[in-house]
Amino acid sequence: MATVPAMGDPPPAAAIEAAAHALAAGELIAIPTDTVYGLAADAFHTGAADRLFAAKRRPRDVELPVLVADVEQALALTVGVPAVAHRLMAEFWPGALTIVLPRSPSVTADLGSDEATIGIRCPAHPVPLALCRAAGPMATTSANLHGEVTLPTPADIVERFAGLVAVVLDAGPCEGAPSTVVDCTGEDIKLLRQGRIPWEDVLAAAARRPRRRVES
């Protein structure tokens, strides 16, 4: 397991290159985000998601969310995205909101047992953003064993996941509330998990309508 310094905006190119190389090989990495440290894998690589579920000890019916660099990457993974989801992306991305959307049938990524939906987030942190631009969307989960508290430092991750994670990108301590998770697959949005962004703020943004352009 290699621990690679990744502080700065933009983060060092060597750190992003090392992590992207590990992802391409189907290995697991640990990354900082704007919420907590996470474990990540290329879910399009055969067997990578299996390794992520096993390392996390996470049941396969608990789907893996995906980090993206921007809205364009998100839309490439989805189909039939409702207007309310676009409003939430515009309001809270990059940021701590995970949006569950209808998954495109062409997306072959292994994210768990549900192939109909996909949870997507664009994080407000330079490391995962740079990595998603370099390597594409990543399947992620918080850096802890399923049901346990998230590990706040790279040293904690090295100790817990020795032999299971190839690269740890070190951006210093990373500890905070997880993302808020919202289901946008039905007629009405639903709160799946309360996190950093208050549900009241999500509802307010969802209710706002785009301003009508006035013709001159």
Structure description:
This protein has one domain: DHBP synthase (Alpha-Beta Complex), CATH 3.90.870. The radius of gyration is 17 Å and the shape is globular. The N and C termini lie far apart (61 Å). It is 29% helix and 19% strand. It has a ten-stranded mixed beta sheet with strand order 1-8-2-3-7-4-6-5-9-10, sandwiched between helices. Strand 2 (29-31) and strand 3 form a beta hairpin. With 216 residues, the chain is an alpha/beta fold. Helix 1 crosses helix 5 and helix 4 packs across helix 7. The model is unreliable at 212-216 (pLDDT under 50).
List keywords for this structure.
alpha/beta, single chain, disordered C terminus, 10-stranded mixed beta sheet, DHBP synthase
Low-pLDDT ranges: 212-216
The structural class is alpha/beta
Shape: globular
Report the top-level CATH class: Alpha Beta
CATH topology: DHBP synthase
Oligomer: single chain
- Please provide the count of β strands: 10
CATH architecture: Alpha-Beta Complex
Write a brief structural summary:
By secondary structure, this protein is an alpha/beta fold. The chain contains 7 helices and 10 strands.
Topology:
Layout: E1 2-5, H1 13-24, E2 29-31, E3 38-41, H2 48-56, E4 66-67, H3 71-76, H4 83-92, E5 97-102, E6 117-121, H5 126-135, E7 138-142, H6 154-160, E8 167-170, E9 180-183, E10 190-193, H7 199-207
Parallel strand pairs: 1-8, 2-8, 4-6, 5-9
Antiparallel strand pairs: 2-3, 3-7, 4-7, 5-6, 9-10
Helix pairs in contact: 1-5, 4-7
